[in-house]
Design the sequence.
């Protein structure tokens, strides 16, 4: 648990480097990343303040996860759909709203993606 902030910060740095797109390809399809997203941001009440509402300072772990989820959602609609479905199906919204609501906002489609 103590190593999580460093681990995810390192992953975030790897994504920002040259060749980061290949790392993002692997990350978004890895089952451990999907599990971590689900557990840390949706299921667990231990990390209930991980993704803080706009205007407040997130933790190092929260900031790294936010950036990585945002990158995966922007680049991979299937990842975004899986996380959105998981967040909505979990029925954890009242207890874990401070993580789930920001996560849902990351999963929203951009206007140019919507087909009428």
Sequence:
């Amino acid at each position: 648990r103590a190593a999580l902030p460093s681990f995810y910060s390192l992953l975030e740095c790897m994504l920002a480097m040259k060749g980061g797109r290949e790392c993002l390809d692997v990350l978004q399809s890895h089952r451990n990343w999907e599990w971590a997203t689900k557990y840390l941001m949706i299921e667990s009440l231990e990390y209930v303040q991980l993704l803080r509402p706009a205007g407040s300072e997130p933790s190092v772990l929260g900031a790294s996860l936010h950036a990585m989820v945002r990158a995966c959602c922007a680049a991979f609609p299937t990842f975004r759909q899986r996380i959105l479905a998981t967040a909505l199906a979990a029925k954890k919204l009242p207890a874990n709203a401070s993580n789930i609501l920001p996560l849902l906002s990351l999963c929203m489609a951009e206007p140019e993606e919507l087909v009428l």
User: Anything to note?
Assistant: The chain has a mean pLDDT of 85. The longest helix spans residues 60-75. The two ends are 45 Å apart (CA to CA). Residues 48 and 96 are 6 Å apart (CA to CA).
